[in-house]
Amino acid sequence: MRLSRSFIPTLKENPAEAQIVSHRLMLRAGLIRQTASGIYAWLPAGLRVLRNISQIVREEQDRIDAQEVLMPTLQSADLWRRSGRYDAYGPEMLRIQDRHKRELLYGPTNEEMITDLFGQSVKSYKELPQALYHIQWKFRDEVRPRFGVMRGREFLMKDAYSFDVDYAGAVATYRRMLLSYLRTFQRLGVQAVPMRADTGPIGGELSHEFLILAPTGESGVYYDAALEEQDWLDEPVDVNSHEALEAFFNRVTAPYAATDEMHDTAAWENVPVERRREGRGVEVGHIFYFGTKYTEAMDISVVGPDGNKLYPEMGSYGIGVSRLAGAIIEASHDENGIIWPDSIAPFKAAILNLKSGDELCDALCERIYAAAPESFLYDDRPERAGVKFADADLMGHPWQIVVGPRGAKAGLVELKRRATGDRQELAVDDALALVL
Ligand code: ATP
Ligand code: MG
Ligand code: MG
Ligand code: MG
Fold first, then answer.
1. pLDDT at position 335, please?
2. Is 293 within 8 Å of 202 (Cβ atoms)?
3. For position 317, what pLDDT does the model report?
4. In the prediction, which pLDDT does 84 show?
5. I want to staple 319 with a disulfide (CB 3.0 to 4.6 A). Which of 36, 113, 158, 258 is the partner?
6. Which of 22, 151, 184, 283 to mutate to test the pocket of ligand 1 (most atoms within 8 A of CB)?
7. pLDDT attached to residue 413
């Protein structure tokens, strides 16, 4: 994309309405604009980030055989009456009436709808297990929308739902999902620590929240440093073996990790002092086993192995896709702007033409740009070098390819790595090989 022709409206000043750094930077880097309280439009660069996050989430869901669907944003109130949640959900639910005075709602989550869809078509235990997910906009009328996309009212969520024949199957599915989440967050370039979460009235131990550390996080977090810097991408867990999944699960959940809601000061004392990590965190994912809560309430059953009615065991698994864009910036920025992880950056690199109009500089920039126009943001504006450097730092491209008159003569560029500030002078092809 050529910056001179793109809709990336960067701001020089800090917008007064933004209280936290990620919100400020998302507005300043031209990623989003608010259109109503807690409701945002995603501009071209922001949409690229949202798509990149979604794609990684999707690949990791597909990897564990969850199947993608797309359910609508609008749901009928009657569906929610069947589970008993229509009245229970309260004022966070946006309730709508159509012209025939039929009651609808903008979905805050999809347990009822997926259970109904499942029940319409699955009749026998032989068709289980099944896991379905979608990446869809949700609406929750939050009392206090704030922090930009981190606590919006309309937000993009990946929500998956699983159906298993029995408890053992449901637990295996849950553990598989936990591993999938660890891989997902690692690929997104962030450290998200799984922490035991409150299971509410259902009880049991099968609920985990994933938190990214950030000083502006809404939860207090306490965890053992043993959970840091683990590599889940090469983790050789056989996801088809219940034993292997159990061993993996026990290993991940053995070190202490809890949000303030679940904090146990006695257990915390047992963590060696040098390994205690304490701070604030942002919830970016949440997985939950809830058994037959919805299948029983909505009377959705299949025929079991003994010919009797069997209520499938369910779990639900959310990832805050749009919240992640903000949360990742909270965890990865400096005083000059965003530092995007390579995997989700809107562009792999900016090409900075330090002398637009100079024949050699223009020609070299065009040549670099032509190598991968989709991956580059070419700053071809007739601006001063200082402005281009500042905007590139603000937007957080992982690399900057700097083309100036002296280097251009020799076919050399300066390649800057945003995260470290390291610079090196390289021949164009060597720079391209590193970046692409
Ligand atoms: P929170 O505690 O932040 O209100 P939640 O526990 O109500 O979140 P869940 O029902 O667990 O949220 O939804 C799954 C995920 O959706 C959350 O882990 C979070 O990442 C994301 N999410 C929830 N509410 C919002 C929101 N208002 N804006 C953006 N993302 C959200
Ligand atoms: Mg909430
Ligand atoms: Mg929560
Ligand atoms: Mg939650």
1. 97
2. yes
3. 98
4. 95
5. 158
6. 283
7. 98
Average pLDDT over residues 211-223: 94
Instruction: Using the mean position of ligand 3's atoms as its centre, give its distance from the Cα of residue 283 in Å.
Output: 6
Is any atom of ligand 1 closer than 6 Å to the C-beta of 156? no
Ligand 1 touching residue 112 (CB < 6 A): no
Residue 151 Cβ inside 6 Å of ligand 1? The answer reads: yes
286 close to ligand 1 (CB < 6 Angstrom): yes
Mean pLDDT of 99-114: 98
Instruction: Judge if the beta carbon of residue 208 lies within 6 A of ligand 1.
Output: no
Q: What is the ipTM of this complex?
A: 0.99
d(CA 170, CA 294): 14
Measured in angstroms, how far is the CA atom of residue 285 from the centroid of ligand 4?
7
Mean pLDDT of the chain: 96
Question: Is 284 close to ligand 1, i.e. is its CB under 6 Å away?
Answer: yes
How far apart, in whole angstroms, are the C-alpha atoms of residue 349 and residue 115?
A: 44
Q: Residue 198 and residue 368: Cα distance in Å, rounded? A: 52
What φ, ψ does residue 194 adopt, rounded to 5°? Answer: -75, 130
Residue 423: per-residue pLDDT: 97
| Euclidean distance between CA atoms 160 and 318, whole angstroms | 6
Closest CA to 379 of 412, 403, 363: 403
Residues 6+ apart with CB under 8 A from 88: none
DSSP assignment of 49-112, as one string? HHHHHHHHHHHHHHHTT-EE----SEEEHHHHHHHTHHHHTGGGSEEEE-TT--EEEE-S--HH
* Placement of tokens 């690949």 in the chain: 59
Alpha-carbon torsion angle 128, 129, 133, 139, nearest 10: 80
Q: What is the pTM of this model?
A: 0.97
Q: Are β-strands 376-379 and 130-139 bridged in parallel, bridged antiparallel, or unpaired?
A: unpaired
